[in-house]
Amino acid sequence: MNKDTDDFGKDDNKWVDNVVNRALASTFGSENQVSESADSDALSESITANSELEPSSYERYPYPDEDAHNMEKSAASEVNESDNRARKALEWLAVIVGALLVAFLIKTFLMQAYYIPSSSMTPALQVGDRVLVNKLSYQFGEISRGDLIVFKRTDNGTGIKTDLIKRVIATEGEILRISEGNVYITENEGSAEKLLVEPYLAEGVVTTGFTIENLCPQSESNTCLIPENQVFVMGDNRSGSRDSRYFGPVDERDVVGRAFIRIWPLGSLKLL
Fold it and tell me: Which entry of 135, 166, 219, 241 is annotated as an active-site residue?
């Protein structure tokens, strides 16, 4: 084969190679593109491999803010619980203070319980009984005969004030007279003297006269004209009671209130 033929063959082969290379390039891309695709596949495989190696990291923390939210919620819950405890403590404190205040107001202005230490009021009241005294009774009404009153009595020797409970026998303006173991009352000047009926006394009880004379501003033997704003009191146990027969009439300003009910013992609950 001559040179021209060989050159022509060589040229033909180059031409064919060029056509083939162009066809391959158009089909699969350039060599650089194939390399980049390969690098991308390798990166994807690397990411997939890493995902397979550490799946727990995503399963354990699917939401990055979840733990922070839970911590804030827990802290808020603790604060609320602390606030609730403080509020409950304040509520109980308010209840206790309120109860004490109410008790103080009731004791000071409304009612008070008194213990009976002696037998001066038997049989109506026994030693150890407890009575409830209404302190408002005489703010809206007058002291009446037969009332059981608590009053403050100042001892002339010591100056000590004690609370006594006695029964009202005569009120202001009345004349009281004791004779032969009985009590007689003249209600108003010019009216007739009447025997005082006392159903609260035990059978056979007699009333003795005054132990000291001149206990009343205007008086005779065993007789007393009750001064204005004063009352004459005696115990139901006449032989065992120190009362107005010993220290004279009681000023109404010293009267604490009226005993209206016996509250102890429970089995002896009774209106007085």
Answer: 166
